Amino acid sequence: MSAKRPSPVLPNAMPWPIFEKLRDKRVVLASGSPRRKDILENVGFRPEIIPSTFAEDLPKGSFDKLSDYPIATAGEKVRAANDFSELTSGDGGLRAPDQGKRRGSRRHSDTVVIFPPEKDTAEGGKYHGEHSEILEKPINKEEQLRALDLMAGRECEVVTAVCSISVSTIVHFFDYPKNVIQAYIDNGEGIDRAGGFAIQGLGGLLIEKIDGSYDNCVG
User: Fold this and answer.
1) Which of 21, 130, 134, 181 is such that its CA lies 20 to 30 A from the CA of 29?
2) Domain 109-218, what architecture?
3) Are 181 and 145 in contact (CB under 8 A)?
4) pTM confidence score
């Protein structure tokens, strides 16, 4: 007999109705992000971690709005995690495909940085005529330098989608000089972070203010 699966709701959790509904469920977070894990544990929730294997390569040109891209990507990540988790038992062992499926919940989010914000490049916006783009996670210092240089003295839009729901935060950057950008890049913090910065770390020194949720920007 397999051991009882631990509840995803921790003893220090607030008595919120959503936690009571999930207390005896198998909840899978299809992400390997330590920041997302920390945010959930801070409110008393510890889901099972099964990182998605989805390549995050949907064609961005196929979306009418760039903010729809993370919604679609989050959905694909959940489907990829489902393909794996349906074949595993609660303790991580393989389960035969014909065994009864566990009742549970799987969630994934995807976060992107859009520069300039789409509302500002639309007709009537203050940057009308420019084209918004998704600033990917930089894979080298050159890509990170380009992203941070673009955003100096400007704003970007951080969009996080959880399945079909998205939240947007506008981040306003100081007009920092090139030597400040280079010092931050040399620190190594922003590599592999959307937009090339981490608001919860030294990257917060580059930011003047935000309009919206802080946790939405943590990455």
Assistant:
1) 134
2) Alpha-Beta Complex (3.90)
3) yes
4) 0.79
